[in-house]
Amino acid sequence: MEDGSRLGPRICEGDCAVLKRDDVFKAVPVLRRRKIIFEKQWFYLDNAIGHIYGTTFEVTSGGNLQPKQEVEETATETKEAGTDNRNIVDDGKSQKLTHDDIKALKDKGIKGQEIVQQLIENSTTFRDKTEFAQDKYIKKKKKKYEAVITIVKPSTRILSTMYYAREPGKINHLRYDTLAQMLTLGNIRAGNKMIVMETCAGLVLGAVMERMGGYGSIIQMYPGGGPVRAATSCFGFPKLFFDNLHEFPLSKVDSLLSGTFSTETLPSEPEDNVLVEEESNGLTDEKQTALQEGEEESTTEAAMEINQIEEQETTDINAEDVEFKENKEKENVREKQRKQWERRKKLIETAALLREKNADGLIVASKFHPSPLLLTLLEFVAPSRPFVVYCQYKEPLLECYTKLRERGGVINLKLSETWLRNYQVLPDRSHPKLTMSGGGGYLLSGITVVLDKGKSDSSHSQALKMEEPSCKRCKVQDLHC
Amino acid sequence: MEDGSRLGPRICEGDCAVLKRDDVFKAVPVLRRRKIIFEKQWFYLDNAIGHIYGTTFEVTSGGNLQPKQEVEETATETKEAGTDNRNIVDDGKSQKLTHDDIKALKDKGIKGQEIVQQLIENSTTFRDKTEFAQDKYIKKKKKKYEAVITIVKPSTRILSTMYYAREPGKINHLRYDTLAQMLTLGNIRAGNKMIVMETCAGLVLGAVMERMGGYGSIIQMYPGGGPVRAATSCFGFPKLFFDNLHEFPLSKVDSLLSGTFSTETLPSEPEDNVLVEEESNGLTDEKQTALQEGEEESTTEAAMEINQIEEQETTDINAEDVEFKENKEKENVREKQRKQWERRKKLIETAALLREKNADGLIVASKFHPSPLLLTLLEFVAPSRPFVVYCQYKEPLLECYTKLRERGGVINLKLSETWLRNYQVLPDRSHPKLTMSGGGGYLLSGITVVLDKGKSDSSHSQALKMEEPSCKRCKVQDLHC
Amino acid sequence: MSFVEYGDTIKDGDTAIVFLGHESMFPVKVQHGTVTQTKYGVIRHSMDLIGKKYGSKVTCSKGGWVFILHPTPELWTMNLPHRTQILYSTDISIITMMLELKPGSIVCESGTGSGSLSHALIRTVAPTGHLYTVEFHQQRAEKAREEFREHGVEHLVTVTNQDVCKNGFGVSNIADAVFLDIPSPWEAIGHAKSALKAEGGRICSFSPCIEQVQRTCLAMEEYGFTEINTLEILLRVYNVRTISLQIPDLGKAAEDNSSAGFDSSNPSNQGSPCANLQQGTVQFKSGVPLREMVGHTGYLTFATKSLF
Amino acid sequence: MSFVEYGDTIKDGDTAIVFLGHESMFPVKVQHGTVTQTKYGVIRHSMDLIGKKYGSKVTCSKGGWVFILHPTPELWTMNLPHRTQILYSTDISIITMMLELKPGSIVCESGTGSGSLSHALIRTVAPTGHLYTVEFHQQRAEKAREEFREHGVEHLVTVTNQDVCKNGFGVSNIADAVFLDIPSPWEAIGHAKSALKAEGGRICSFSPCIEQVQRTCLAMEEYGFTEINTLEILLRVYNVRTISLQIPDLGKAAEDNSSAGFDSSNPSNQGSPCANLQQGTVQFKSGVPLREMVGHTGYLTFATKSLF
């Protein structure tokens, strides 16, 4: 096998890895003797263990993975392209191989690539097709009969793309380029003290953690019984990244601000939260429901894979803790108390961190109405720091904007949306991709400044004037500066 | 001069013509001995009269227009392009010709093209620039020193582009491609009976008239004292196009529907309306006001040019009517009475046209809230006919959508917006234009059906279900059909 | 019924659109004695359609109902049988405006394809204009002719089956506008120019790929076209929805409780702060973009054949 | 202050951002004894700035006030002296994510240009990563070095003045990511590949023109890059406005009048139907797109150097 020390990390049992085929990603736990179904192929990851991340495998008989050294392009020498399609009459009889023939080839263990070659040779119209149509045909067939997957290390790029494609409902339809804007506009970097409020399965939290690389601290605000971090766990961060990750219940925020905070009433256990997450998606519309039902299928599948990692870990811990069966109950009670004590201690620490009111930024991306979140959580942010709020809909951000203007203490407010266009770049046939995302959600960003509470009336009116986006005034100012 | 019968229409005195330089248009009346200012050049149109539309002229000394037979590209043979710009140090001293030198050349009557050539020869950095930078330089200088204009015949393409660029506030920021959508979605064609309600200076009316080519009839609904048709008059339609153009005051619509309509109370005279048009633009925001102030400058200029055509016509009529000065007053009273009588007669005719409730479509594009307009005016439309409503903002159309759903009698409702992207296509430097319009407004379109008033409750719920944009249901239906 | 004139009632021989629901419809040829199957049951043409008003609600045999719509070029575009990739109304709109088409215009088109644009062009140039449309695929040309006949517009259109790049449009110096939607439009620019009137006219070329556009622009320049302008137009459709967003629980309701000092270690009380909180929601209407939209149809290059 | 760490108070030597109002700001180098002119009057650094908290409101000599902001790469991008075309935050965001940058990453960049992207890259790879940036224009390279020094990030960046197409990045097999913003990126793909780690890494090329993209994609394929993906990202900014639209007068208020039968030929009564009508308006908040927006910056082509 390869020299791993020079070539980067190897695939290890227990890792969270990402399967990749063309543009399709799927996060899976690396486990032995576990059947994986991906892109209509089933296989086992056993043989992948020990290989370097980035390796491409071919699925061979019995669902075994076999490393593929070279990703060759399908033989182009067989192509004899027609110049146009005027002579092609589609009678549905152009393929001489029957379904049974193809099945027979497969059963014989003939590799996908060879099947495609046979399909080409047995197509009566292939030679008459234009070069473009030929390529299209090959690609289609290749996708159908060749089973090649690459195993890659998770990253924000990959996981955010994956979630947007597979389970957008879980991340409030936050498109990956919108997430990218948030990370940059929020000046997320090592050493920051960040406040993150998200209900995006922990994807946004993971992205922030990746950008902070274990330096600095993060306070995750959570609704309900505990933070959801299914996507966070997919990143495969080292343990130390979690040392400075704190969580604080949203339901304690008002009391913290009003000075009545106490740790006596803790929110319910994290387990309860899963229900909350599944129950409400912030939508009453039928269509959305219908859509999400459709999504739910794939969701369930992928979520299963991911949750199994967590289960796995839990099982491991239990296996270590429970040495003797007779001690189990006693142990459980003690363990529960210890955990409770630890939770309370951490909560007090986190409350202290928030009370300093010197966070270096605020990131909000949730299913809740952003306005109360933003107005409250900004209290904890130091002046001259950026904040970014995501919402799937524009209207709530209009309200945020208005409320923030009334409140003061923020400048450079900007409501925006990005358009993302992917291109096909091929010799003589370059064009934007034929489908694109209709929308990736909206962002409201800004910068905090010292809030002049005494003179709020006068500062308010001046702040409004100051920020009014008037082209005329800008020009005049340009001249002066 | 050219053989006009074969080569299309000639420029005539009194025409409304459009001046064109690069992508800039301006509509002007063709008048003798009248100074025109366009793109920082002044000239007289006298010499253009009698030439064919589409002719390109050069502005020569004294503001005379001289036809230019060939539009040659600037000599490319002098170009010796550098490969990159690493050796260029910008010290602001690269041009050896001074402002005075250039002024001297101009005063000598040297043509613009020659001035540009001299500028190139006297630039110390021109040869070091990349080919791209050289082209950019030439274009910039050419634009500044060469005075070439083309005179073209007005059309919807030209006038809608011109209005959007020069006076968007006058047409409620209706972008030309949005107007194009309206004309198509509205199935505007010869022979239709159309209802048009617009406050876009008559541009939308003109576009509808162009597409109907004088066949069929149009009923223009107007607010205030009379319809505004400044842009309509720019099209230069033949007189017969106006024979079947009717107008009806909005303020009479409710009484018409309720059966209490009478012609006894006519709205005030058209002249009053200009004020209304100028007063309200539907915006309270400072920025918009600032922007529109900026626009107003060019607006005033262009509007002046256009209005002079109308003045001109009025003067002509008066000149014919008033033969003898002593008869003037008597004549005036009689004339006024005749006009009043005619107006009333036309109003009764128009009311009858509307009462048939068989219009072939409805087009709304106004500064007013579209919801009451749409709900009321749809009463006059036959079933199975398209309607299209434009609004600069999305929110009012959301309301229209909701109200229409409650009302019933419409299907295929669609709320949309178009993105327009212009490209630079040049060898080795093709890309989308660097600036684009941020938005062209929103459209709500649909089709009328027979309104089942008796069963409104049941039909409403079924209609809602029927129209709910559910992907799932669509797919099922596809299979069934 | 014809595609260039509205009729009030459904007649034998009409092409009508059966509207089943949101973006679900299909065209039907109305014929005495014929029946059409829908998911709501059978429609009997003689009984249910002929003589009825366009826009009527028709109850099918299973009790469900549909609307019968008068055909328009736009409805046809949404429902026609695809023989090729077709142009949709968004592109058709800007093509029609930028080519300055109106009643009386003479237009040349190639290829005819599935006739989506052709129907829209005929509608706009009627009753006094004409469409010359050239299609190199024989079957398609034949099918287009048949459709134009059925749709009552055959007097407004001439379909020619030839290769426009080799043989041109078969007319010269009569067109106000030319439209090209062929794989190598640059090979047809010369023919387009000679089809256009001597006094000039407009041309449009539709191409999916930028390389085609580059070659076409060069050819247009070579042939002396001016105002060469390439653009792209995309439709963004919004679904109108009532959204309701939860107001997050920041603990305002729980403040009284926290002072009461419930011990969270008592399992029966753990849920209590959540239980007595009034989770409010905010409702609003929103125009929500579709998750996926058409990201590209083609580049449209417009140009003017100038006077000289 | 540094561009990779927040400081609470303004210190001598800091680069701070003076915020005057909506999108009107400028950077200032804080120095004891210096004064800065603004339209609101003078700011005296020793008195008004040094020792104050970042984010403070500072009153200028004429009584108007400004905010003093801590610099961030994003504020720098909005305020830096342009020596070239620069990359803006919208593109920078997607570049950073798609190159999978994080603390510790080694990145190569060419050209340095005005340092807009460089500052953002350094921010992201700090404190343990490094940026190798290559600029062929000597003046610009020098200026960039100076800025990095002033901004407290010189330990995180190496500026080299050479032609990347000829001489590469000056490092090999150490980069996690390479970014190219040069006129002929295809000439630098080989150098980019050898700068990247043996185990692979990511590359991005920014080009305004599609022809550059075409050549670059070919070169990437030739050099065995995979996942070649070209995209474009555009920012649509909305102004938040209170809009009020008039409710049209359809005559409801006038109905009583019409039955009263005023004669419109009586001039004094002509205006009456308008006069007594209560022209209502509807107010709502709207996010209104700007009239003009940036329509294109460049195409971004990303690719992966794979394991084999």
From TrEMBL, chains A, B:
<dbReference type="Pfam" id="PF04189">
    <property type="entry name" value="Gcd10p"/>
</dbReference>
<feature type="region of interest" description="Disordered">
    <location>
        <begin position="73"/>
        <end position="92"/>
    </location>
</feature>
<dbReference type="GO" id="GO:0005634">
    <property type="term" value="C:nucleus"/>
</dbReference>
<keyword id="KW-0539">Nucleus</keyword>
<dbReference type="GO" id="GO:0008033">
    <property type="term" value="P:tRNA processing"/>
</dbReference>
<comment type="function">
    <text>Substrate-binding subunit of tRNA (adenine-N1-)-methyltransferase, which catalyzes the formation of N1-methyladenine at position 58 (m1A58) in initiator methionyl-tRNA.</text>
</comment>
<feature type="compositionally biased region" description="Basic and acidic residues">
    <location>
        <begin position="76"/>
        <end position="92"/>
    </location>
</feature>
<protein>
    <recommendedName>
        <fullName>tRNA (adenine(58)-N(1))-methyltransferase non-catalytic subunit TRM6</fullName>
    </recommendedName>
</protein>
<comment type="similarity">
    <text>Belongs to the TRM6/GCD10 family.</text>
</comment>
<feature type="region of interest" description="Disordered">
    <location>
        <begin position="278"/>
        <end position="302"/>
    </location>
</feature>
<keyword id="KW-0819">tRNA processing</keyword>
<dbReference type="InterPro" id="IPR017423">
    <property type="entry name" value="TRM6"/>
</dbReference>
<dbReference type="GO" id="GO:0031515">
    <property type="term" value="C:tRNA (m1A) methyltransferase complex"/>
</dbReference>
<comment type="subunit">
    <text>Heterotetramer.</text>
</comment>
Automatic annotation (TrEMBL), chains C, D:
<dbReference type="InterPro" id="IPR029063">
    <property type="entry name" value="SAM-dependent_MTases_sf"/>
</dbReference>
<protein>
    <recommendedName>
        <fullName>tRNA (adenine(58)-N(1))-methyltransferase catalytic subunit TRMT61A</fullName>
        <ecNumber>2.1.1.220</ecNumber>
    </recommendedName>
</protein>
<dbReference type="InterPro" id="IPR014816">
    <property type="entry name" value="tRNA_MeTrfase_Gcd14"/>
</dbReference>
<comment type="similarity">
    <text>Belongs to the class I-like SAM-binding methyltransferase superfamily. TRM61 family.</text>
</comment>
<keyword id="KW-0819">tRNA processing</keyword>
<keyword id="KW-0808">Transferase</keyword>
<comment type="subunit">
    <text>Heterotetramer; composed of two copies of TRMT6 and two copies of TRMT61A.</text>
</comment>
<feature type="binding site">
    <location>
        <position position="135"/>
    </location>
    <ligand>
        <name>S-adenosyl-L-methionine</name>
    </ligand>
</feature>
<dbReference type="GO" id="GO:0005634">
    <property type="term" value="C:nucleus"/>
</dbReference>
<dbReference type="GO" id="GO:0032259">
    <property type="term" value="P:methylation"/>
</dbReference>
<feature type="binding site">
    <location>
        <position position="163"/>
    </location>
    <ligand>
        <name>S-adenosyl-L-methionine</name>
    </ligand>
</feature>
<feature type="binding site">
    <location>
        <begin position="114"/>
        <end position="117"/>
    </location>
    <ligand>
        <name>S-adenosyl-L-methionine</name>
    </ligand>
</feature>
<dbReference type="Pfam" id="PF08704">
    <property type="entry name" value="GCD14"/>
</dbReference>
<feature type="region of interest" description="Disordered">
    <location>
        <begin position="256"/>
        <end position="276"/>
    </location>
</feature>
<keyword id="KW-0949">S-adenosyl-L-methionine</keyword>
<dbReference type="GO" id="GO:0008033">
    <property type="term" value="P:tRNA processing"/>
</dbReference>
<dbReference type="GO" id="GO:0031515">
    <property type="term" value="C:tRNA (m1A) methyltransferase complex"/>
</dbReference>
<dbReference type="GO" id="GO:0160107">
    <property type="term" value="F:tRNA (adenine(58)-N1)-methyltransferase activity"/>
</dbReference>
<feature type="domain" description="tRNA (adenine(58)-N(1))-methyltransferase catalytic subunit TRM61 C-terminal">
    <location>
        <begin position="64"/>
        <end position="305"/>
    </location>
</feature>
<comment type="function">
    <text>Catalytic subunit of tRNA (adenine-N(1)-)-methyltransferase, which catalyzes the formation of N(1)-methyladenine at position 58 (m1A58) in initiator methionyl-tRNA. Catalytic subunit of mRNA N(1)-methyltransferase complex, which mediates methylation of adenosine residues at the N(1) position of a small subset of mRNAs: N(1) methylation takes place in tRNA T-loop-like structures of mRNAs and is only present at low stoichiometries.</text>
</comment>
<feature type="binding site">
    <location>
        <position position="181"/>
    </location>
    <ligand>
        <name>S-adenosyl-L-methionine</name>
    </ligand>
</feature>
<keyword id="KW-0489">Methyltransferase</keyword>
